[in-house]
């Protein structure tokens, strides 16, 4: 085997190993940007050598191996080059997916091409080891994550405060909201205390577009193991909006709320005035039991006559969009 060929595919093994370790670290919740950068540099060096050794810098030769393989090869390289500069949340999903894409092409390569046949055993052993490592990392991360979650139950509550994470600075008109959450007998029990200078709602019936009619408190909830979620609004004059969505993109596929409204009578909602604003209590029947994990978010439209409403959320949304379940808080139900 030619020295450059040995170097080319040794770099491939090194890049593959680094990518697998990077994926495992990210899945485990311990991202290492240095490792991601090293992975990208190893992969880039391998690709440059492939162009030199196997393709002779000829696009025609490169495409002889198949257009799909060529495109996949360079898409993977592009992903590896951008991963170090992505947010940890995004990179945590992309790194394992990139490892899977690389595995599809890299693992069979020594069995397809005679000149790299000596790499069959090292590649196979490395692939198995990395696969086991990523699986163990995912399992441990899941256990740690669930054990460290806030818990809610009959006698246990979680406390949330609302903010404006999508803004560089909080609006001057922003007013505080505190939310307390329990889970009792199949009911998600939510109480929100809101400071409000001008408490009002022009809603006249249930299942209206409450967020356009004045003050509204919102609850989003879904099971961690489900794509579907529930959205419930309550206004200061006890009008409710009850919506059901199939997944996080569902709200983009509808022309209006009529196709996703649900029975408001299933929701127990009560509002009352307080000295500095109003309190909302929302009780939502929900199919969950002790041990289950819920994703929850609490949002608010603080309307004041004569100006646009001030929006806030308990979730760290990087943009002003409440229908983003991946950013909702996770809580574990206990007895």
Q: Profile the largest sheet.
A: 7 strands, mixed
Q: What oligomeric assembly is this protein in?
A: single chain
Rough outline: elongated
Number of β-strand runs:
12
How far apart are the termini? 65 Å
Count of structural domains:
2
User: Which residues form runs of ≥5 with pLDDT under 50?
Assistant: none
Helix share bin? 25-40%
So how many helices? Answer: 7
CATH architecture title of the largest domain: Sandwich
Q: Give the C-alpha Rg.
A: 26 Å
What structural category arises from helix and sheet content? alpha+beta
Give the overall average pLDDT.
91
CATH C-level of the largest domain: Mainly Beta
Order of helices and strands: HHHHHHHEEEEEEEEEEEE
Description:
This protein has 335 residues and is α+β, with helices and mostly antiparallel strands. It folds into two domains: 3-147; 151-333, Immunoglobulin-like (Sandwich), CATH 2.60.40.1190. The protein is built from seven helices and twelve strands. The strands form two sheets. Strands 1, 5, 6, 7, 10, 11 and 12 form a seven-stranded mixed sheet that branches. Strand 6 and strand 7 form a beta hairpin. Helix 1 (3-27) runs antiparallel to helix 5 (88-106) and helix 4 (67-82) packs antiparallel against helix 5 (88-106). The mean pLDDT is 91.
